[in-house]
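Per reviewer request, we include the raw input and output of the structure prediction for the construct analysed in the revised manuscript.
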Amino acid sequence: MSRGRVAFISEHASPVALLGSQDAGGQNVYVDEVSRNLADLGWDVDIFTRRPSPTDPDEVDWAPGVRVVNLDFGPRAPMLKDDMWPFMPVFRDRIREWVNENNRRYDVIHGNFWMSGWVAADLGLQLGVPVVQIFHATGLTKRRHQGDDDTSPPDRIDVELDVVRIADRIIAQCPAEASELIQDYGARPNRVTVIPSAVNIERFRPIDQLEARRQIGIPDNTLLVAYVGRMLPRKDPRNIVRALARLVDERDGDVQLMLVGGETREPDLSATPELGEIVALAERLGVADRLILTGKRQPDELHLYYSAADVAVTTPWYEPFGLTPLEAMACGTPVIGADVGGISYTIADGATGLLIPSRDPFALADALKYMLSQPELRTQMGSAARERVEQHFTWRRVAERTACLYDELCRDRSRAQSFDPLITHSPTRRIAKEESQMAAEMTKVAIVTGAGSGLGAATAQRFAAGGYAVACVDIRRETAERTASDLRQCGTQCVAIGCDAGSESDVAAAIDLIHNELGRVDVVVNNAAIDHTMSVEEMTIEQWDQVIAVNLRGPFLLAKAVWPLMRRQGGGHIVNIASTAATRAWANASAYHASKWGVVGFGRGLGVEGRPHGIRVTTIIPGGMRTHFFDRFVEQGIPMPDECNLQRPETVADVIFYATQMPSQTCKRSSSRQ
């Protein structure tokens, strides 16, 4: 049974097109892989694109459940993608005609790139269909890095701004892109979803290095550096040549640079002008004999080239995401990459490869020298790289998350947008006009631990009421999901995560998931806590360690995990929940006292560290509350406190929320006691 039908709009990037040429790359792979995997999950996918050549058929049954629809617009000769913009109204009309002729109905329209985003937004308004948009690259980023060399049409950024306003959801491929969409384009954070792209782990797989070299004709004893990708100035393969020259000057050994890509299967310097520039540079630097030019290769061949290499390198000026580092990692090859865009996200620096500044051949030469001199390290990094890809970057995972996004939109077909109807049939004008208050609607994100019940649930509800997206974290995922489900019914964007707050791996995975799903972290409320009420003589070392792990180690782990995210955002707020156990004492609670005194001291020291980065730290000391905390008193024969002295958890939740809303200059010490 079909789960639904989606129209993929991709004006220049068809899955049928050959890869490796100037305008065929990551977007082609994305459209191909996501459509196939969506079909496996029950979605019917039609891909609308420009007919690559006059001899191509009108329709191609590309995979089970996936059809490519080739439409004509513009001249019949090959076109660069930047030249296609004036023909987008024709492309839109051709799609509408095909839809009417074939009596097709779509549940979702999925735009790829800014031009198809214009088409998708326009059709979405005409047909009343929800629109999902992925830009693959934005005009502001391109202009920022290419300057006068940017060949984009002048309307691009204005059109992107309109698409951002109209699209129901925008997919960002990494946290950096999400931040750009929110900060530079004014996207509503609750409409931006981070879904990283991925790699086909069956196609890109490790094979024995010597066997790979035998198949592609590389000598066994060569130290081989590989660049795989398009030959464009912004991809900066010249940077690798400059680093190679420095490396050759400093060390002995047969170091070779293999360049895989171009416009033709056999290397052709006239057909691929950048390749000619690379060779000329290598000749001037005296390393032309160190180059291996392979020409363009297709995806099913590339694992041989990655596996043959000792290290892969990619140092572009900028990179919205970047698939080639993931392809190399999937083949078990460590990667040296520029610390930009999505590459900063996919490469685990020091674990699966190294991150270095872009446009810095000296740093690249040093990194190559370090990697090439340590074969055991390369093997270790290669294994870790493959494992990281399998865990986080598979196309099946991308499709599952995209399908969930579709399902969410299909459940709410009402378009909660106040846009005028379509007002233009020309790409030289804006799609819609609206006086927007986007900045005032920016959705912040709060993480609440121990959110399954009591104070944690009340705090999650309070932040949701305050307009935050909420990550509900609890040792038991089912209780976290119960709180999250209640919030979703009220329209709050939230995620539920099962996590042991005292476990480093659990916390790291939770923060990674939260950042992927919600795009940022503004507030962390460290509320999770446990206690063993017994004397020191009765308490085991394991029980002591459990209390300290959750109550004190947990806030440390959460703070450590979110610290770099908040620092990059320019600030955030960490709220640690202590207890009156940090101000007075009672018997049979030594571990609890120790942990809560520690929370107070930890918060004070952390606040000093955070001040230069705009990260605020507040410690709340609540008194007794009417929660399940006291249920165990009855079971253990401990006298219950007077009900009149217990406060509602909602009261403390109000204090927590209020503390995070106070001006940054405010000095406070918070308590909530009755």
